[in-house]
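Good morning,

Attaching, inline, the backbone tokens for the sequence recovery test we're adding to the shared suite. The designed sequence is right after.
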């Protein structure tokens, strides 16, 4: 990784360039500074078309404007976060900002200024690096170090929103009058500029509304989620093909294999992949992925590709490493499959959100009673939640730009709400028998099974977006055999 250059007298008076303490260059000669100012071609892009979701983001801003008339609304993208010393994590814009603009640039801010008939939106961004003062090659975030940015003119064409210099925004916000709301938690500088103009309660209302806007997906979003799922299906196929290499190494081979598909076809993984072999499958969010992969064990793979527009899949399959379920593994797997079937069948427009969870939990409770692991009757088990020792988590969640999407929505509109066409949720029952659970027979211990699919609520029922991956135990075995040749 190359080193940053030190600040120069020309730039020190404006904004000092951060100097690495042990950099190899003591300074910049006047001759070099002059040389770097000239000899560069004009790279302005003139024939840009709006981004694919420009019409959708405009409609979302219009809905937001209608909800908060007469108020200034400020939605930041966020800033780079330090990973260690002078290196940063890869940037991911806040969901609220990306949802309303389609832009994914660090330090960006959407401001919606109230007008007599709605709002005027402006997107505030960093402009191209200054060639005259040397910023483009002397600053650590200059374009010769981190890559070209769009000019403000280019950004206006791409996103359908007038663009201005974000470096002037904080000062303007300090002078602003009238009611203001800001989405908190992403940009401390912007929040500081508004500290005497906003309240936590009003800002939370803005965050909640933006979360609830995403409960029903538009056609563009459904298409992006299908893309994410389709790439995820291919990622699962990739993993099955290299299970022998994972056996020779560790769960990390599985993680790396899926990550390659996510980076080639999408932006990233939508969340830390859970590549849990053997008893690790009983740890619900096992993301260390450093354990052994052994023939005869199960592999619980919970992973999702995130598209370039931030929509993520969330799919789980529990696979026999050697391609064949044992009799006990199959019994447990089939119970989870039956629970998932009941849950998916309950996903219908007009149904209560909780219905799919209740349907799946009833099947699991019935099997646990049938196997003698908990004392019935089933109604008693469900009333007391006794099945949760072995199933623990809820049976699903909303899905979208966040893997657990719409999390700030009000309870009455989410878990106590009603399903509508366009909602996308996961259905993911599971059974987990911990390795140290003395209440179950020894042969059960260390077996964990989860099956998860991404379900779109339609006008007349539902559609399984992840139907490209087999679910039934015999189909899984046949699928794996085919991939292994």
């Amino acid at each position: 990784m190359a080193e940053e250059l030190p600040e120069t007298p020309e730039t020190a008076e404006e904004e000092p360039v951060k100097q690495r303490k042990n950099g190899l260059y003591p300074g910049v000669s006047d001759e070099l500074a002059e040389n770097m100012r000239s000899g560069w071609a004009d790279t302005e892009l003139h024939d840009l078309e709006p981004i694919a979701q420009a019409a959708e983001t405009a409609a979302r801003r219009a809905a937001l404007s209608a909800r908060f008339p007469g108020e200034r609304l400020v939605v930041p993208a966020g800033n780079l976060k330090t990973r260690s010393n002078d290196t940063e994590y890869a940037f991911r814009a806040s969901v609220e900002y990306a949802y309303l603009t389609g832009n994914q640039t660090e330090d960006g801010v959407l401001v919606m200024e109230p007008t007599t008939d709605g709002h005027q939106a402006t997107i505030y961004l960093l402009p191209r690096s200054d060639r005259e003062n040397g910023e483009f090659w002397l600053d650590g975030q200059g374009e010769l170090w981190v890559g070209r940015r769009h000019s403000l003119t280019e950004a206006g064409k791409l996103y359908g929103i007038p663009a201005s210099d974000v470096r002037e925004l904080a000062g303007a916000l300090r002078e602003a009058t009238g009611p203001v709301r800001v989405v908190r938690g992403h940009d401390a500088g912007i929040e500081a500029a508004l500290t005497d103009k906003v309240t936590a309660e009003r800002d939370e209302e803005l965050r909640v509304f933006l979360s609830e806007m995403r409960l029903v997906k538009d056609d563009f979003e459904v298409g992006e989620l299908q893309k994410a799922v389709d790439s995820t299906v291919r990622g699962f196929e990739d993993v099955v093909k290299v299970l022998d290499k994972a056996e020779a190494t560790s769960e990390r081979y599985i993680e790396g294999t899926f990550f390659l598909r996510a980076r080639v076809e999408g932006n990233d993984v939508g969340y830390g992949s859970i590549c849990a072999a053997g008893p690790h499958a009983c740890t619900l969010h096992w993301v260390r992925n450093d354990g052994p992969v052994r023939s005869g064990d199960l592999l619980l793979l919970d992973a999702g590709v995130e598209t370039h527009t931030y929509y993520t899949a969330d799919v789980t399959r529990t696979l026999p490493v050697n391609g064949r379920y044992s009799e006990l593994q199959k019994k447990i797997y089939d119970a989870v499959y039956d629970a998932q079937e009941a849950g998916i069948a309950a996903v219908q427009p007009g149904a209560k959100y909780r219905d799919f969870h209740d349907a799946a939990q009833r099947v699991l409770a019935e099997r646990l009673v049938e196997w003698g692991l908990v004392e019935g009757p089933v109604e008693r088990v469900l009333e007391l939640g006794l099945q949760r020792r072995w199933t623990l988590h809820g049976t699903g969640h909303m899905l979208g730009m966040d893997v657990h999407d719409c999390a700030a929505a009000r309870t009455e509109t989410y878990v106590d709400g009603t399903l509508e066409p366009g909602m996308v949720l996961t259905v993911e029952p599971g059974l987990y028998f911990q390795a140290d659970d003395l209440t179950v027979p020894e042969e059960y211990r260390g077996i964990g099974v989860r099956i998860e699919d991404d379900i779109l609520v339609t006008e007349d029922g539902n559609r399984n977006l992840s139907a490209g991956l087999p679910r039934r135990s015999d189909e899984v075995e046949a699928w794996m055999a085919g991939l292994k040749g």
